[in-house]
Specification:
The structure holds two protein chains of two kinds. Chain A is an alpha/beta fold. Helices cover 46% and strands 19% of the residues of chain A. Chain A folds into two domains: 34 residues; 145 residues, HUPs (Rossmann fold, 3-Layer(aba) Sandwich). In chain A, strands 1, 3, 4, 5, 6 and 7 form a six-stranded parallel beta sheet that branches. Chain A has a two-stranded antiparallel ribbon with strand order 2-8. In chain A, helix 4 links the parallel strand 3 and strand 4. In chain B, 44% of the residues lie in helices and 18% in strands. In chain B, strands 3-2-6-7-1-8 form a six-stranded parallel beta sheet, sandwiched between helices. Chain B has a five-stranded parallel beta sheet with strand order 11-10-9-12-13, with helices on both faces. A two-stranded antiparallel sheet of chain B has the order 4-5. The C terminus of chain B is likely disordered. The chains are: A alpha/beta, B alpha/beta. Chains A and B meet through helix 1, helix 2, helix 4, strand 4 and strand 5 of A and helix 5, helix 11, helix 12 and helix 15 of B.
């Protein structure tokens, strides 16, 4: 009887050890998902149905080097005649596929990601809310300007003045037309 | 024409002013007249458009009813005159209109219901943004909230809905040519409501609305119990960690396609749902709540050890027809002996579909590794 019990316990221990040995990558990935509190956080705000390729590439590069979490954040604007906590299905139809695309691309480069959607009366108001709700070490924005569809020069000045984080404003470039648009792999 | 029964209501639905609803209504009225029916115009709003006015020539037009309220005279649909004249078919423009103060009923669709009740057929017009259930959505799309709304039941009660559709480009062309508004209002219209993105979204909304109405008329639920069984309701099982947002986004898209409400359920460990938990969890939970709110989903938090049993209970209480769960990592050690969550859900929530949502970020990773 004792021999059977010992054999069972040995087999059980072997099974557990084998399980751990067989899944070393999962263990590492798991520890990456559960990041410690002090992890660096990079905010990547965007407003439309695409995001500047330069800003995205820079954010991914930095997040990778610094082992930081990339936080793409869709800034949704709520019309004055709706309450600030109103559901915004139409804007979400644009934002969600793009967030999915950003996430797929970032994860493919082994960058941890934690998306946000934040509402405000204006893009700046939404930005103010996310900056006051959460702490970020870095904010990366592109200075591309499409009237009414992106952050204005005044918004960028405001961001430099108010954000309690290092702000990187990327100069517009001809390559900006290669924006990251929703290109989701698989059915979404 | 059956005169002792309720009249037949046909609504011409458009995405915005100027698509040609009224013209289409007048053309149809004329065709009915030529077919030998007794047709009158109960109320016509031409908004000064010569083309619309020209189409009304030859059709009998009932005079408007005039009411004076606090020194101001208003003119509106004369319901008693329509009932007294008793035509086979009455054309009544702008179904969503709010009646002038002092009239018997506050809304024009109520007048129309009365006329239909008298066995008179009615042709009417309305824009999609006037539909009550779409009012918030259209306000969000266009930034313009209309005050004159029509309950969805009125449109559902319509025997026919005809979508009057033009491309946004063609509509803008009409606007610029002065065929919709007078010259002094064109610039304001172009810079406010008549933007191409607004019109595209409104057009899609109008098309969907008509499609949904066709679908609804095809399947006529017998009673509320059947309606509940036919209607879909989705629930996604989430946990407060960044990866859960992926599942929420996928669940929301599925809910959108099914026109179904979405609930998010987090089964927290006992005591884990109390505010002020550990920083990472609290932050992720806050982000999930924000996401749920902006998507219009309902976040439900329950405490307990048995995720499957709690999810099955909540699914039963909320009439859930689909449960979506994320793909879990392969079990290790003694975990292999446990029944997987999806299988337990299938067993504990009979009649509810369980869908495992794949993690496509891993798919891309594998693909790029192969290159």
């Amino acid at each position: 009887m004792i021999a059977i019990t010992v054999a069972f316990l040995v087999a059980l221990a072997c099974g557990v050890l084998l399980g751990r040995w067989a899944a070393p990558r999962r263990t590492r990935r798991g520890s990456r998902d559960a990041r410690p509190e002090a992890v660096r956080r990079i905010l990547l705000p965007f407003t439309g149905s695409s995001i500047s390729r330069r800003a995205f590439d820079a954010a991914v590069r930095l997040a990778r080097v610094e082992n930081a979490t990339l936080m793409p954040c869709y800034l949704a604007t709520v019309p004055l005649n709706l309450p600030l906590d109103a559901a915004l299905p139409a804007q979400c139809l644009r934002a969600m596929p793009l967030l999915e695309t950003i996430e797929q691309r970032a994860v493919a480069q082994d960058v941890a990601i934690d998306g946000r959607v934040v509402r405000g009366r204006t893009f700046r108001d939404a930005l103010r809310r996310i900056l006051s709700d959460e702490h970020f070490d870095r904010v990366i924005v592109s200075a591309e300007h499409q009237a009414g569809h992106s952050l204005t020069g005044d918004d960028l000045v405001w961001l430099l003045d108010r954000a309690d984080a290092e702000v990187m404003i990327l100069r517009p470039a001809p390559a900006d037309d290669r924006a990251v648009a929703a290109e989701v792999i698989g059915h979404f | 024409m059956v005169s002792d029964a309720t009249g037949h209501l046909k609504v011409f639905l458009g995405m915005a002013a100027g698509v040609g609803k009224t013209v289409r209504m007048l053309d149809e009225g004329r065709a009915e007249l030529e077919a030998g029916r007794d047709v009158v115009i109960g109320l016509l709003e031409t908004h000064g458009r010569a083309e619309t006015e020209a189409r009304a020539i030859g059709l009998e037009r009932l005079p408007r009813r005039r009411v004076t309220y606090r020194g101001t005279t208003f003119s509106d649909l004369d319901v008693p005159a329509v009932l007294a004249r008793r035509p086979d078919l009455c054309l009544i423009d702008e179904l969503a209109h709010t009646n002038a103060p002092g009239l018997d009923r506050p809304k024009r669709y109520e007048d129309v219901e009365l006329i239909l009740g008298a066995g008179i057929d009615v042709l009417s017009t309305m824009n999609v943004q006037h539909l009550e259930s779409l009012n918030d959505k259209v306000a969000e799309l266009s930034g313009v909230r209309v005050r004159e709304t029509v309950p969805d039941t009125v449109l559902r009660r319509a025997d026919e809905i005809v979508l009057v559709d033009v491309t946004p480009e063609a509509l803008l062309e009409r606007l610029r040519a002065g065929r919709i508004y007078p010259a002094d209002r064109i610039d304001a219209a172009l810079s406010n409501f008549f933007k191409i993105e607004n019109l595209n979204a409104l057009r899609e909304t109008a098309l969907r609305q008509v499609a949904e109405n066709v679908e609804a008329q095809r399947v006529e639920p017998v009673d509320d119990v059947v309606a509940q069984a036919v209607g879909e309701r989705l629930m996604a099982l989430v946990e407060p960690y960044p990866g859960a947002q992926r599942l929420v986004r996928r669940a929301w898209r599925s809910a959108q396609r099914l026109s179904a409400p979405l609930d998010l359920l987090w089964v927290a460990p006992p005591g884990g749902a109390r505010p002020g938990g550990d920083g990472e969890t609290a932050r992720s939970l806050h982000a999930l709540r924000q996401l749920a709110s902006v998507l219009g989903a309902t976040m439900v938090v329950e405490e307990g050890d048995d995720v499957a049993a709690l999810a099955a209970r909540v699914a039963g209480e909320r009439g859930i027809t689909y449960i979506l769960v994320g793909a879990s990592r392969p079990a290790r050690g003694l975990g292999r002996l446990r029944e997987p969550l999806p299988m337990r859900l299938v067993r504990l929530a009979p009649g509810v579909d369980v869908r495992i949502v794949a993690d496509r970020t891993r798919m891309r990773g594998r693909r790029e590794q192969r290159r």
